[in-house]
Structure formats: structure tokens, C-alpha cells
Specification:
By secondary structure, the chain is an alpha+beta fold. The protein contains two helices and four strands, in the order βαββαβ. It has helices spanning 16-32, 71-79; strands at 2-11, 36-52, 55-67, 85-92. A four-stranded antiparallel sheet has the order 2-3-1-4, with helices on one face. 21% of the residues are buried.
Length: 96
């Protein structure tokens, strides 16, 4: 099992319930494909470096999880299609 982190940037144009549902859906994808979530960090609303879809701010979430090497690929394929996710990135965390 490797350690991974999924960074998700969620649209600021949706309400709190929709945002929570979007993050829960991301966590559900991780668990569905064999991952074990270890930590979810809500960084709140931040200013974007550049305008995306006419938005200057968005909500940032970082989800750490343990999984085998095929899980990030499957999770990214599903997160890519989510309407409220404007950016995402899944990276492997190396042991320090």
C-alpha cells in the first residue's frame, strides 16, 4: 500500500451542502477502488492564482489515503467527470 494525496478544488458558486456532497463523493470513489482514507484537510476558500471558469476563488480540499497503485488512476477517471470539481491532482507521497 502506498500513501497518496488527492487535492480537489471545488467551485465557490455552489452552496455548503453541494460542496460537502462533492467531497463525500470523492471520498466514496477512493473507498470504492480499495483506498483507505487517513485524513481530510479542508483549507477553506482561497484566491485562485488565475481565473478559472470566471471564478476568482474556490474551496480547497486535501484527502490523504493509502491504496495500491491502480487506485489513483481509477479515482482520477471519476473525479475528472465531476461537474463541481474545477481542478484536481493526485500525487504519491514519498516516505521521508
Amino acid at each position: 500500500m502506498n500513501k497518496y494525496e488527492l487535492a480537489v478544488v471545488v467551485s465557490a458558486k455552489i452552496d455548503d451542502e453541494q460542496r460537502a456532497a462533492t467531497v463525500d463523493k470523492c471520498k466514496g470513489y477512493i473507498e470504492r477502488f480499495g483506498g483507505v482514507i487517513t485524513n481530510v484537510e479542508d483549507c477553506g476558500k482561497k484566491k485562485l492564482a488565475y481565473e478559472i471558469q470566471k471564478m476568482k476563488e474556490a474551496y480547497y480540499y486535501f484527502i490523504q489515503f493509502d491504496a495500491d497503485s491502480t487506485t489513483p488512476y481509477e479515482v482520477e477517471n471519476h473525479v475528472r467527470l465531476m461537474e463541481n470539481v474545477i481542478r484536481y491532482l493526485c500525487v504519491r507521497q514519498d516516505e521521508a
